[in-house]
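Technical appendix A lists one of the benchmark inputs used to test multi-chain prediction within the project. The record comprises two sequence entries:
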Amino acid sequence: MKIATFNINGIRSRLSGLLEWLERESPDIACLQELKAPNDRFPAAELEKAGYGAVWQGQASWNGVAILGKGVEPVVARRALPGFEDDTHARYLEAAVNGLLVACLYLPNGNPQPGPKFDYKLAWFDCFVAHAKTLIDSEHPVVLAGDYNVVPTDEDIYNTRSWLKDALLQPESRERYAALIEQGWTDAIREIYADERVYTFWDYFRHHWQTNSGLRIDHLLLNRALAPKLRDAGVDTWVRDLPQASDHAPTWIELELQGRRSATSKTKH
DNA sequence: ATGCCTAACTAAGTTAGA
């Protein structure tokens, strides 16, 4: 089973690339962030035509998250982060899909820092860490997938020089990500690529994509019940090279689940 | 210290992203 997370950066304006990616990579579950569309402009019909059921939590202009299931309708468990139910931003969606609990998150960016946006990021992150603690030892498999807006270490960025004051690299942001790992969550990309540079985001400025000047900020964390099933992980960098691409690329894991054949690797011709 | 690039909203200029 393949599970992916992808900050689409506007689902309306990048729908053709999204459909091309779904067709080619065929993830069983896909978490999307930054829909930038209200609920009534979510392209449910187009996704259905592509073979995907979907649940979504959108809002006008910004934010917005969705969970897609290949051939299945995800069952919504939560539409907001516990403790942050009054959030005016659509940043969290949790659903049951194919026997897994899937959390799709779009953690606040937090820039500029210091300031109210950074305070909001840290408060949101604290709530998320507290919620994660309730899921780490669940007997059910859980994946926390999304755009965390955190560069975990200096090994997760091409060069820190022009980012030192950025909210994504601040110790306060990194401490909270480290707290998740401390709880026992497995950072799937780091589990598979122990020492390699892996990036999931390349900003639109200064030819950063063309020079592979990237950041790793999209993460899939696995709880104790799920971590032993991890078989592979990667980033679909070809999507970042499409015309009108998002500044993020889809990031994925491959799991071997008992009693379930992996549709992506075993049924493809 | 800021712009670089891109999109949404709306109708030229601002806000936000990271």
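Residues 9-10, 12-13, 34, 36-37, 60-62, 109-111, 147, 149, 163, 166-168, 201, 203-207, 215, 217, 244, 247 of chain A lie near DNA strand B (CB under 10 Å from a C1'). Residues 265-269 of chain A have pLDDT under 50 and may be disordered. Comparable benchmark entries are summarised in Table A2.
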